[in-house]
Amino acid sequence: MHATQRQEYVDFVTAATPKLRRTAYLLTGGDAHRADDVVQQTLTRLYVQWGRARAADDIGAYVHRMLVNAFRQERRARWFGVRLLDRPPEPEPGGAPPTDAVVDTVAVRAALAAVPPGQRVVLVLRFYADLSVEQTAEVLGCSAGNVKSQTARGLAALRRQLPLADPTEVTR
């Protein structure tokens, strides 16, 4: 890789890594360590394929596809089910009490983690990564109709996980 290509890669990775990490975090159901592994695999493959990636029409969609593929591959790995701890570590004492926004964020992430993985991928790409139906279909290698149906099913599953206290609060 030439110095200019290497610098392009570094610039792209520097700008894209925070969003890729947040996307991977949501895909993995809130497991920051697995998310970092998925992003690292994605960026390593991106480095190897940088010549092809930089020539893509939409490099963002190209990298998101790589991220989803790395997530799927990581889920199929034998060690996926291995748990090193029987429960999550306790939070540090003395922290500020959570605000309503933090509680809502935690509840949404927990509910998203309970959505089936295929639907979770579609929801994260559509509503978090802000990809269009067509871009999401391209990333996943499926039809736009499939993305729409998985989105509808995923949103229904998410709503079942997050029932509203007062259903009259939401207006369309």
UniProtKB/TrEMBL annotation:
The keyword Transcription applies. Pfam families: Sigma70_r2, Sigma70_r4_2. Transmembrane segments: none annotated. GO terms for biological process: DNA-templated transcription initiation. Residues 107-158 form the RNA polymerase sigma factor 70 region 4 type domain. Keywords: DNA-binding, Sigma factor, Transcription, Transcription regulation. Residues 14-79 form the RNA polymerase sigma-70 region domain. SUPFAM superfamilies: Sigma2 domain of RNA polymerase sigma factors, Sigma3 and sigma4 domains of RNA polymerase sigma factors. GO terms for molecular function: DNA binding; sigma factor activity. CDD domains: Sigma70_r4. Belongs to the sigma-70 factor family. ECF subfamily. NCBIfam families: SigE-fam_strep, sigma70-ECF. This is SigE family RNA polymerase sigma factor. The lineage of its organism: Bacteria, Bacillati, Actinomycetota, Actinomycetes, Micromonosporales.
